[in-house]
Amino acid sequence: MEDKSTQPIGLFDSGIGGTSIWKEIHAVLPNEDTIYLADTANAPYGQKSKDEIIALSFKNTEYLLKQGAKIIVVACNTATTNAIKEMRSHFDVPFIGIEPAIKPAAIHTETGNVGILATKGTLSSELFHKTVAGFSGINFIEQVGFNLVTLIESGKINSPEMTALLQEYMEPMINANIDYLVLGCSHYPYLIPQIKEILPETVKIIDSGEAVAKQTKAVLQQHGLLNTTPHKGINTFYTNADTAVLQSIIGNDFKAEKAAF
After folding, report:
1. Which residues are catalytic, by number?
2. Which end of the chain has fewer CB atoms at under 10 Å, N or C?
3. Whether pTM exceeds 0.90
4. How do residues 180-192 score in pLDDT, each as one tens digit?
5. Beta bridge partners of 11
6. What is the mean pLDDT of residues 196-219?
């Protein structure tokens, strides 16, 4: 049987948001090679139909498999909740999905009120509804993050427009006395500093990054795909749009490259 353990981990997102997941995976598995794909030309995914999301997810997966990816991390909540079932049945490779971390918030809430900030595509998905239905007695305050991804992808994380939107989206949650806020989009961890300024200090913010990194390691071990060589991982970043925003997010230690996919 072919040893694929030294082949790279492939990750994709509708844009730069999934780099928040990549950072967690890189921290847990520093000697793994990674290839990150930002499908920024088609961002955001949250407003697209299920069929469009599946088609884009297949296209991204095919590109990563051509680059030799041994496992695919779907670093996008919208793609996971709408397309992971179809991807798993179509491709012969392990997939790691990312979905809102509703369970820890629902288990630990003391007020019984949990806020969820996510894309329209995630909040309207079958997988999301099934997860929420499993926690009766909890009041979930759902908010679609209209335009948040677009602003992040435009390099406007710390803009007046962003502040105004976040205040508008957080107000009903504050009024509902939430004690947990679940971030249901891999772009949103980049907004945590601003969200913290708006929410009361008592509100805990949860995203899925750390859990996804641990799950990635576990699945690699399970399939005998963990890279046990001592070399430092090589990390490649591709985007099909302007490289500037991706470059600003990943920092000077890495290089964002333009690719056609």
Report:
1. 76, 185
2. N
3. yes
4. 999 999 999 999 9
5. 36, 73
6. 97
